[in-house]
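#struct-pred
JK: can someone run the complex with NAP? inputs below
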Amino acid sequence: MRVTAYAAPAAGEPLAPTTIERREVGPNDVLIAIEYAGICHSDIHTVNGDWGPQPFPVVPGHEIVGTVAEVGADVTKHQVGQRVGVGCMVNSCGECASCLAGDEQYCLQGNVGTYASTDRDGTTTQGGYSTHVVVDADFVLTVPEGIDPAAAAPLLCAGITTYSPLRHWGAGPGKQVAVVGLGGLGHMGVKLAHAMGAEVTVLSQSLKKQEDGLRLGADHYFATSDPETFEQLEGRFDLIVNTVSAPIDVDAYLSLLTIGGTLVNVGAPPEPLPVNAFSLIGGRRSFAGSMIGGIAETQEMLDFCAEHGLGAEVEVISSDRINDAYERVLASDVRYRFVIDASTLA
Ligand code: NAP
Ligand code: ZN
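RT: done, structure tokens with the ligand placed:
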């Protein structure tokens, strides 16, 4: 099946309209008519070559929401017409310890990314900046009724990437949680941590988005450009989730943790993040990382969002504005996720 899409032809080059081939619907496949696809900073890192060579042309997009257009003979979980979502992965080995534990994102054979990845049949995956996609039913999520579909799309990456570490490190009542960077991931981190009952602080470069941050659920908001912030907040947080797409001064943020606190990095800059051992050992502190979340946990997150009336704050754009949106994300000028209206691709 030939479908329209938007692709990056080579590293650092503007994206342009194209057509791509989608596989035939196999027995365990779902054909999705895409409605919305979010623009994640990872799409930009990938097509700019920040993370190394890619199999260009690349159709990015791993925050996909649409409706089921067709299902394979063996599919029982999804029905035609149902609203569904696809996140950052579309396959895994299904047999290793990670997959058996429901942590498909940490598949020991490597999970298959939604785009720019080699699928288990040897083909290269292409993502959601497209009108249709065919995905193995086991990697298709149910989008609960009640979440606006455009606002649901970013949950498939930004939502789960913040939900998973918040749950893993126990964000909840009585816990002081800080979110560094109020972008796509950060704004979901704030909403989710607040809904989980934690006391939430935003650490942003400036106070420009303070009003938004407080409206999204933060209790406190500080500018990291002000050196006094680091003095004032010393030893404050049980958990800091760093969503910044560029390197940060890890030692400075570790000093804001309680004894035994954790700084978890979800931001994925290509540069190394140096750490002074004394920043960790002096307070039994941890510097950790976390990647998206498993399929069952992603469904749990979607259901949690429906229950708490949560979705992303989105700016819906037509496909001809993708390159402008990339520039604005790079300039931290996004409130708080660009989402492509896939009907403008047709
Ligand atoms: P985004 O929307 O661009 O948000 C990043 C935010 O970081 C910006 O809004 C800005 O917030 C802050 N920031 C940007 N440049 C900065 C700098 N030089 N110094 C300090 N702060 C800066 O990006 P995103 O889509 O949320 O993604 C964030 C990062 O997470 C990316 O690296 C992405 O690849 C990664 N990611 C990781 C996973 C995972 O599984 N671990 C999943 C998805 C994305 P303020 O203006 O508030 O300072
Ligand atoms: Zn993403």
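RT: quick notes.
The chain has a mean pLDDT of 98.
The longest strand covers residues 29-38.
JK: thanks, will look after standup
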